[in-house]
Amino acid sequence: MESQRVEKLKTILEEFRNTVDEKDARKLELGKCNRIIQKLGSFSSECEECFQHFIDLENHIIQLVDKVDELIENDVKHHKQKIDNISSHLQKQHKLVTSGYYLSIYMSIGTSLGIVFGLLIFDNIGLGLPLGMGIGVAIGAGLDADAKKKGMTL
Ligand SMILES: [Zn+2]
């Protein structure tokens, strides 16, 4: 994918974002959409599926821009499905993660382990729970920061 084409689509999306209100922008996950365009653009030279997704998303966004004044619930739903579909491809095939992905995993692992070890070692959930959760948060946040640094965050 030529980077010019990627930049052009990002500009179109940016302009679209300026025409909708904050609430719609959030509903349509335009921030995520922007990151997805970037990722599809960078993977499309080696991944046929990303290339197809890019073209599909490009057409879809141009359509959205066309009817910005008459967006209905169905358009939002349709849009979300597309974004979800593409995100799952990016996560499965290209090992990308959503932001806060590791935090949520490690926090729940830490919390469960904290309860178990709290009971086993300290005979006290109140002691184990915050400790386990704290360690989980520390590990998860570290991994999230690392993924972000490596550009692996969606
Ligand atoms: Zn791909």
TrEMBL record:
The organism's place on the tree of life at top rank: Bacteria
Residue ranges of every copy of the Glycine zipper-like domain listed in the record: 94-143
Keywords: Membrane, Transmembrane, Transmembrane helix
Membrane-spanning ranges: 101-121, 127-145
Tagged with keyword DNA repair: no
SUPFAM superfamilies hit by this protein: Bacterial hemolysins
The name this protein goes by in its record: Glycine zipper-like domain-containing protein
Organism classification: Bacteria, Bacillati, Bacillota, Bacilli, Bacillales
